Every structure is written in C-alpha cells, then in structure tokens.
Amino acid sequence: MERKPEKPIGKLGVLVVGMNGAVATTFIAGVMAVRKGYGVPVGSLTQMATIRIGKREENNFPKIKDFLPLYDLSNIVFGGWDIRDESAYEGAKIAEVLLDKDLDPIKDELKALRPMKAVFDQNYVKRLEGTYVKQAATKAELVEQVREDIRSFKTKNGLTDLVTIWCGSTEVFIKPSAVHETITSFEKGLAENHEDIAPSMIYAWASLLENTPYINGAPNLTVDMKCVHQLAEEKRLPIAGKDFKTGQTMVKTIIAPMLKMRMLGLEGWFSTNILGNRDGEVLDDPMSFKTKEESKLSVIESILQPTLYPELYKDYYHKVRINYYPPRKDNKEGWDNIDIFGWLNYPMQIKIDFLCRDSILAAPIALDLVLLMNLAHRIGFSGTQEWLSFYFKSPMHSENVVPEHDLFIQHIKLKNTMREIMDEEPVNHIDEKIKMFK
Ligand SMILES: NC(=O)c1ccc[n+]([C@@H]2O[C@H](COP(=O)([O-])OP(=O)(O)OC[C@H]3O[C@@H](n4cnc5c(N)ncnc54)[C@H](O)[C@@H]3O)[C@@H](O)[C@H]2O)c1
User: Fold this and answer.
1) Which residue among 242, 275, 279 is best mutated to probe the pocket of ligand 1, counting the most ligand atoms within 8 A of its Cβ?
2) Which among 136, 183, 286, 294 has the fewest CB atoms less than 10 Å away?
3) Mutate to test the pocket of ligand 1, among 113, 145, 167 (most ligand atoms within 8 A of CB)
C-alpha cells in the first residue's frame, strides 16, 4: 500500500435491504447487544480473530480489529428497507431467531428502527406480498427514490461513510441478457421498465450512484451484471457477492478440499436441508430455488477440478435439495451423504448432519463484510473483491480466472490481503531451513 489507511473518524451508515428479515435482524440486534456489552460476536473474524504478523518466532498475533483501521461497532448506524411497515423489533420477534432475554435489553433501540418503503414486485419473489412499497411509473424513477432515501439517511444521521448490504429474499432466476451489458443499455432498460431488471438491481444501481459499496448476500444476479462492474469501476467503488457462505456450503468447502488434497475419489454427493423460516418458504418456489441451486452446485466442481483428475471426479453425481418444513423455523438441518472411494477404488461413505441456525451463522458474516467493504472503499479498492471470497457461496471473480471456493485458500487470501493493506509481509508458510539450501 502506498499509504497505510487510518482509523476512520465519524460514523458508518449500514443500509440493509430486507431489514426486518431473519438474517438482518439477527445481525442488527447482535451488533446492538455486543456494543452494549450484552453479547459476544462469536463467528466474526473482524471482532474475534487474530492475525499473525512477521515470522512465527516473533509471536506477534494482534486482533484483526486492532490491526486494521475499521469502524468500531459503536460508530455504526443502521437503516434500510423492507416490504412491511414493522420495526426491527417486530421483525426479530417474527423471525424467532433470538430469544426475549437477548432482545429485551435492546428493545427500545430496535423498536426505533423502522424501514423505508421497499422497491418490490411480486413477480420477482412469488411467495411474498409487499404492503409497504414505493410507487413509480418507471424503474428509473425507483432508482431516484432510493437515491433520495440514501442521501437523506446520510444527512439525517451525519454519516461519513455508507455501505449497502442485501439481506433480502432470493429473487427468481434471471439470466444475464443484453439489458445488463452496459451502463447505457441498463439505463435504457430502467426507463423502459425492462422485465429483466429486478428490485435488487435497482438498489444496487442507486447505491453505486450514491458512492456506496454494495454487498449481495443472496444468490441474485445483481453484482454479476456487466453494467454493475462498469459502474463500480467508473465510480471507484467495491462490489461483493454473492450469497453468504453459511451452513452446508461452508462444510462442503472444507470436505471437498480434503478429498482432493488426499487424492480420494468422489462418486456422489447428496445434500438435503429442512428449513422452516421465511427464506425456506421463498425457496419453496421453484424459480427462487433455481437461483439458489445454481449458487450451491458450482462449489464442488470448481474445487475438485474434474478435468485435471478424471479418474477421481469425472462422473460424480451431485444433488442439492431444500425442503420447506415450518416446524424447524430458522433451525435448519442439513444432511450430506458423500460416497467416496480410496485405494484401488474401494468405496467409503461420509455422513454429516449439521443442525445449524442459519441466521446465527450469517450475522457475523454480514458484520465482517460491511466493515471490510468500507475499508476497501476508503483505500480505493474497486470492482470485484476476490479477497472476500471467504464469505460467499459463489464468490465473484475476474473474467480470466476460475472462482476460488476452497475455504482454506480463501482464508489465506483474506489474511494476506489484510497484511498487504497494512504493509506487512504476506505469510507463505515456507520453512526458513529449506530456503537455506538454495
Ligand atoms: N441465513 C443464511 O444462512 C443465509 C445464507 C446465505 C444466504 N442467505 C440469503 O439471505 C437472504 C435473507 O435470508 P433470511 O433468512 O433473512 O430471509 P427472510 O425471509 O427472513 O428475510 C428477507 C427479508 O427481505 C425482505 N424483502 C424481500 N424483498 C425485498 C425487497 N425487494 N426490498 C426490501 N425488502 C425485501 C422480506 O420482507 C424479509 O423481511 C435470503 O436471500 C437468503 O437466501 C441466507
């Protein structure tokens, strides 16, 4: 880095799309609880992890939050949009992730947090109905309304920096088409109400036009569109996505590298989930599920590299299912049955039953991403942020490279980028004794 970034002064505004959903309210309530001293930010690297600086024998392991000049949690101000006029407290109660014992101490703060009217159209999320929705003749006008929301949120709260994070529902599957190609074609599409422009794209467009980095926590097409990349580069803004890597996919990106590292073969991988929250209900619609499925399926293929290892990975069978099962609410159960083979093709099996809590795993990811994306913005990183792949199921990547899905490699890349930002040497794990033989 030419110049080491400095600790920010002022306040960071975090605009959450889908502000009253399970992930969003768990994230927001969690930050409020932590800064009041009622909770521990378990799962957040920016708050809990350390980073090694220098050689191993130097024994220097500062906490990331002391090493990187990030905003303190006390300087975060939340705002956002949702399709129902409920406070974040009501949203958290409906989501049923956090218990009253955790919500009560921050009840007033959560009650005071109310969403702005959403950009919503049921054609893009079939299972939801919006009652608190912006009206406009064209999508271009909706962009202007969201821009106005962002500006007034910034002024009203005296904010220095902003970041937008999509924690809204998964939209129907949309293929990239001509309208998404360039800034001009997209703007024309906005004016003509093109049907391939979904609400998430309107939030992203408005955010970038207001110099606000955009994070996509769902598998929606938004940040993959060429026009968004162009606009982000033009405005020198970072964009990140897509789809938070939480339960089953996180496990997959640990098990698949293990198989490949030990040159063990794969015959089949069957993954199924039962999930009873609103996200599960939305994903029960085949068109929203298709968006999620695309995001979940690519992971193993890219880690195992079947073209390099045809004897091990050429013809494996991979299936992912999500079943809406209301009694489970946010407490998902994800089963994996993995048929593998070893020495002389002898078969073996791995069975995993992960009883996780979806939003409890997603909330710390949302926190890390808003803080790190703000840092990226302040130091002038723009476009795709591959160093943040660690947090995503379908990490964005440059056109000329394949995405990196292996959680261990992603972790090394994340921490080495942090070192680079602060002008410290990357850690390469090469034994000093080996170097002496050269
Ligand atoms: N929980 C996880 O582990 C996890 C992991 C990866 C991705 N995700 C994704 O994160 C998203 C949120 O998940 P969740 O469990 O919180 O779902 P949720 O249904 O509880 O919350 C989504 C919220 O978005 C709102 N919303 C929908 N469309 C909107 C729009 N156009 N504008 C404003 N608000 C809108 C809904 O009203 C709802 O409050 C989903 O897309 C999900 O697939 C979740």
Assistant:
1) 279
2) 286
3) 167
Residue list, ligand 1 pocket, CB within 6 Å: 17-18, 20-24, 81-83, 95, 118-120, 125, 128, 167-170, 199, 217-218, 243-244, 246-247, 277-279, 282, 358-359, 361-362
Q: How far is the CA of 285 from the centre of ligand 1 (A)?
A: 14
CATH number for the domain spanning 269: value is: 3.30.360.10
Most ligand 1 atoms within 8 A of CB, residue of 15, 19, 23 to mutate = 23
Does 268 share its domain with 321? yes
Structural domain span for residue 268:
248-355
What is the pTM for the complete model shown? 0.94
Residues 6+ apart with CB under 8 A from 35: 73, 74
CB 226 within 8 A of CB 180: yes
Kindly tell me if the per-residue pLDDT of 430 is higher than 90: no
Kindly state whether residues 93 and 238 are assigned to the same domain. Answer: yes
Q: pLDDT tens digits for 187-242?
A: 999 999 999 999 999 999 999 999 999 999 999 999 999 999 999 999 999 999 99
In-domain check, residue 282: yes
Ligand 1 centroid – CA 365 distance (Å): 14
> Which pLDDT score is estimated for 126?
85
List, for residues 44-88, the tens digit of each pLDDT value.
Answer: 999 999 999 998 889 999 999 999 999 999 999 999 999 999 999
Q: How far is the CA of 245 from the centre of ligand 1 (A)?
A: 14
Buried b (16+ CB within 10 A) or exposed e, 295-316: bbebbbbbbbebeeeeebbeeb
The vertex-45 CA angle with 43 and 51, nearest 5°, equals: 140
pLDDT, tens digit, for every residue of 3-25?
688 999 999 999 999 999 999 99
Residues 43, 143, single domain; the answer is yes
Q: Measuring CA to CA, how many Å separate 107 from each of 85, 330, 379?
A: 17, 21, 36
Q: Are residues 301 and 338 in the same domain?
A: yes
